[in-house]
Amino acid sequence: MQFTVETTPAYAEVNGSGRLNMVAAPLLREVVAAVVAKGSHHVVVNMEGTDFMDSSGLGALIGCLKIARQAGGDLRIANVQPQVKMVLELTSMHRVLTPYESVDAAFSND
Amino acid sequence: MPAVLTNRRAVIVEDNADIRRLLAQIVADQGFTVVEAETGRDGLDLIRAGGADLITLDLNLPDLDGIEVCRQVRTFSDAYILMITARADEVDRLSGLDTGADDYISKPFSPRELQARIGALFRRPRSQPVDPVPSADQERAAEVQRSLLPAEPLRLQDYEIGGRCRPTRSVGGDFFDWSATENGVQVTVADAMGKGMGAALIAATVRAVLRSSNRHTDLNRAFEAASQALEWDLAQSSSFVTIFHARLDAGSGSVDYVDAGHGLGLHLYDGGLRRLPSGGPPVGAVPGSTWTAGSLSLAPGDSLLVLSDGLLDAFDSVDAAMDAVADVAAGRDSAQDVCEAVLDLAGSAVADDVTAVMLRRCPVGSTEDGAL
Predict the structure, then answer these.
(1) Which among B16, B184, B240, B276 is placed 20 to 30 Å from B260, CA to CA?
(2) Whole-model pTM over 0.90
(3) Residue B1 in domain
């Protein structure tokens, strides 16, 4: 899984395509940790191309959320695909990692 | 007195000259041959050229990020890496460990503290790279994990119970457990994040903590105590665990349960199937969480069936999986048969641990009797 980062004045967008699993999970953590360390404390993970997420992938999102919140920011997710949505709902994590309709919408009400 | 280690090479990577000299002195006092680097790139060159048994690595280097240096070192060396950071917060510490560092220490540190950390590192056995073929250790671990599953069928008048767990590797993060209580039985199904040995260690801890929580007569209090005990351990390993934990009052058929992000507790009744609502996130996922207990009533012929999410990998949706489960459950009388059939539904292609546990209240007039 490859990640790309685009930074806007309001937030950093992290894009990843493929399967967010045990292999990709530490990579996502590294990418988000680096983004936050560089000063972008508001992060949107665009999950349009993430067609699968397992528990390690969910763990990475939770870890990234902690990193952003400890820096005084937040992490939100957008364009969530059906399997990822299922994992979030099954684990009740959709209340903490609420999926947004689009990347723009993620921080639009802040 | 610290043990003197001879013929070991330490590489100090630190841009601040004063701290570098201090580190070099402390490490040399422990018997290391010391070389020093001011930048990440110089450090990497020294490690590549001469090898290293110990590396102290500053997180804030002028050229490369300490985390990046750490990651690069790990591609060719298994030296002990001690990260040194001025940013003493959790984030740096976690990312330091994730990239392959063995320990960290925050500035300012005392020479004694540093020596103690280094001593502790070298007393710790080095972890081996993952072997695709199960080693004797893994076989033994699998044996131990199997032995932690309930061995005896439960003997409870008018009820029967069955369970089955299939890890994808020799060991896994799924487990189930049941044990008799004063009024009936308590049943647990849990799924620790990830797969393999790490998940199995977490699973064994969860099992022990939940077993010892049954001294609390109130389920909410028992679960609260258990989750508090687990949260710290889980935070240390950046992990979480989904848990379905239930207690049956055998006389009335009433079941109280707590579902922490598990989401696959099912009430089977009269040919129908209902998913039980969850009471909150997985344990360890959201610090300071509380969970709302739920309840259901098992009429004669009803069952509580608890699955793990590995089963869902074989289906397009949760609903499709639930339909298939209802079908296989309807045609079978014994709880163990249902669990076996549910695992067969998952097939062998599923790349996650799969678990099923079923507690069934026997129909009225059933010839099946408990031993009591």
Answers:
(1) B184
(2) no
(3) no
